[in-house]
């Protein structure tokens, strides 16, 4: 006789684990299924973990979690072919408790987080692939795994199986993504001595720095590149819309290679050894392409629900929130003894009312806006670089004269108006 | 234990089908060097049924003395019986160093002996040296899958024991004019004391050339993509009269039998020519073949570490290169026959 | 009831481990801890024998507390019980001290439920010695059988086991008395994909954990570093080969060049040509 749990969570990434953790903590019997050898094993990369959400789940987590570095400086680099204009903020308040955010290596962090869920009583089964939802009378009642005697039942199944969610697809919740709904991120972890990292990025002790790179890093395709400091490695990556890559006939690793050898980036990477390489799909469609996320006996969370803020790269942040909200909804459903779509639909409403929904709504036009008007990347960033160059080059011209030249360099009155309009548009979608 | 009481270097003389196995002869060479450096004698210990005539070979290969335990009870190798002979010998003569070939028999025997004598045993040694003053054996071996080399010492216990990988040291040229002593040792063991019986020995009908004795090896790896790739290199191997080897990945994928595995957990080989085809060159593979005479690597990945370990490398598609090479040899070797 | 105990070890995955070139130490974070692959076959063989003859399969390991994960892996394969002996006093053990500690654990397990058969993997991938299994057998004074690639028969009543020992060119058929210890080859079985019920049982399983004090009459001077006759005096990175000459050009040109290099050693190949043509022996 196959076993039955209150809840089965498919996928032990940040969303699934946050959900399982919250459920187990509230004495709900929960099975957490992971396809990898262990949670995080499929993801060798690093990323930024935002403190706030994680702390709502486990207060003071940073005292024991395997974090790489608390971030004390965030730089934004506007890249042209042979120049960069950089804006940065560094604050010592971020270097002490309770910190602002952290770099983490997913392989370590996800494993730690899942262990925490197990400590709360969740049952974690690794190396097991959920093949399909078991559906009876239109209701999801369990999961069929790839193992012998592999059927397992539950009142609610939570799908946290990532952007390519096969289970959501098999339920008809997802259609195949269109290329402009998905970004492709290629990343590398580069080994570098701890000391050198601290010298090179002007850091003290365990402090960390992140650099978000816009402009030439993506050769005019919509997207960003980034460079993060881990303890003794760097994480460099570039993410672009799949549609842009197709249009420009570019291979993802070519783009990454271009970023790595760019004269503004290259010095940061000197003397590093490549350790890992990963390509990863990220749903970037935002609010507009959010799939159906609630059904009878089933909820979809995290990347599988397309919960990614394309502009601010806050995937794991929103993923965790969605997991927690799903868990809270299920706990109420258990109390009511009702697992129908109607009851579970509270999840969707709460999610959209939370910052997740707010952010998704706010940025819903951003990706598409930039996609539609590539000159943000193609013209304005180079323009900014030219302006900065003229401003800072010492050639005997007065500052006032320089400003006049810069203004002239921007073009005719008509062009100036267009830029003003564009910038206003960008401000509107970003603000 | 007073380690001052222990003197001399001993080698376990493993034999098969009426001759001493090559690794034991190699160890007599290594043992000779250690014994000379230390200024002590080198002895072999020979256990079996009707094996006494082999003792003179051991002397020709460097032993000063051979202790012979010759009795029907030793007809087959059994851990329990052989072990008891060795322990009796060690207790009587107290050798300070004791070397075994790193064969399955040598390892099996040494493990049991070391436990009973409560002494240190270093497995799969690839380098041996001795401190002339103290007599301390410096046994070095690859550790952690070949990722590091480690030198192991056994300071307080004797004999200092080690199993030694085949083909890491050279045997001396045999000299049958050498003088040496052959000592027949009493055997008091009775069959009832031994709990293990050999009921039968089954030899596979097809005698293949053992990989570690082959002059030419054509080895394939993951890059061959499947059984078809191995068919291709087998044809090449047959053309040039080579044996077929493989990397661990290829064996684990089930493309070829276990006994073909070259490397840390497989066979160590030192052929005159080694072809590594579609083998990336993981460290555990390299430790098993890096002493080959001529290493040729063919791999699609220009960064494959096998190219660091080879003499000649070709970056390219094995499925293109190997058939061309096979063809070239078929033509050339055909001609040899005509004129030969 | 037949009681089979497998001795297992958690090891760093040396296949992917990276070394710190400056300190010559392993970068443990680069390699996950796994169940020693050879030991998985030992456990699987025990589970298969249980399926044939009935009985119970236990596993025992010495290691730090996280080694519980390796025990769970054995439960996934189908083991019934797991014992972890863990204590600072075990640290730094070589094969001799390890076999002593495991023997003490086995003796204690035997008092709970007499042991008929002990199975070990051929060797561990971090130690590469294969010495612990025979060591345990000697200490327990039971027959050690290494290189076992088939268990033909177990007769618990008669106290007999018949097994095959692998030889380079065949195998031996061996009869021995029970209890005995087998070190098994990888080829002895294939490990099937574990069932979901076993996975669930493993996920929840808590092994029995013993410290030195729990093992009863133990001579502490024989444990860990103290009980180890061998010491590691020095470690260094293996010599890096210099790299070979890369043959350039088209495939045809590369092959031509390689062929002429090989032909410089054509005496090696001459035999082949003669044989092929059926020439003189």
TrEMBL record, chain A:
Keyword flag Cell membrane: no
- Cofactors demanded by this protein: FAD
- Keyword tags: FAD, Flavoprotein, Oxidoreductase
Q: Does the keyword Methyltransferase apply?
A: no
**Which terms in the Gene Ontology molecular function aspect does this entry carry?**
oxidoreductase activity
> Looking at the record's lineage, which domain of life comes first?
Bacteria
**Where does the FixC-like C-terminal domain start and stop, copy by copy?**
367-431
**InterPro entries referenced in this protein's UniProt entry, alphabetically:** FAD/NAD-bd_sf, FixC-like, FixC-like_C
Cite the SUPFAM superfamilies for this sequence.
FAD-linked reductases, C-terminal domain, FAD/NAD(P)-binding domain
Q: What does the similarity note say?
A: Belongs to the ETF-QO/FixC family.
Could you identify this protein by its name?
A: Nitrogen fixation protein FixC
Originating organism: Paenibacillus selenitireducens
TrEMBL record, chain B:
Q: What CDD domains would the database entry show?
A: ETF_alpha (cd01715)
What keywords are assigned to this protein? FAD, Flavoprotein
- What positions does the entry give for FAD binding? 247-248, 261-265, 278-285, 299
Q: Does the keyword Aminoacyl-tRNA synthetase apply?
A: no
Q: Which cofactor does it need?
A: FAD
What is this protein identified as?
Electron transfer flavoprotein subunit alpha
GO-annotated biological processes:
fatty acid beta-oxidation using acyl-CoA dehydrogenase
Family of this protein:
Belongs to the ETF alpha-subunit/FixB family.
What PANTHER family does the record point to? Answer: ELECTRON TRANSFER FLAVOPROTEIN ALPHA (PTHR43153), ELECTRON TRANSFER FLAVOPROTEIN SUBUNIT ALPHA, MITOCHONDRIAL (PTHR43153:SF1)
The residue stretches assigned to a coiled coil in this entry are none
Q: Where is the Electron transfer flavoprotein alpha/beta-subunit N-terminal domain?
A: 9-198
Specify the taxonomic lineage: Bacteria, Bacillati, Bacillota, Bacilli, Bacillales
Does Protein transport show up as a keyword for this record?
no
Recorded hits in Pfam families, A to Z, give: ETF, ETF_alpha
Cofactor: binding details: Binds 1 FAD per dimer.
Give the domain of life: Bacteria
Q: Name one GO molecular function term.
A: flavin adenine dinucleotide binding
Automatic annotation (TrEMBL), chain C:
| A molecular-function term among this protein's GO annotations | electron transfer activity
Q: Which PANTHER family match?
A: ELECTRON TRANSFER FLAVOPROTEIN BETA-SUBUNIT (PTHR21294), PROTEIN FIXA (PTHR21294:SF17)
UniProt cross-references to SUPFAM superfamilies, sorted A to Z: Adenine nucleotide alpha hydrolases-like
The Electron transfer flavoprotein alpha/beta-subunit N-terminal domain is annotated at 23-218
Required co-factors: AMP
Q: Do you know which SMART domains this protein is assigned to?
A: ETF
Q: Which domain of life is it from?
A: Bacteria
One Pfam match: ETF
Query: Entry's InterPro entries?
Result: ET-Flavoprotein_bsu_CS, ETF_a/b_N, ETF_b, ETF_beta_N, Rossmann-like_a/b/a_fold
Q: Which family does it belong to?
A: Belongs to the ETF beta-subunit/FixA family.
**Record protein name field:** Electron transfer flavoprotein small subunit
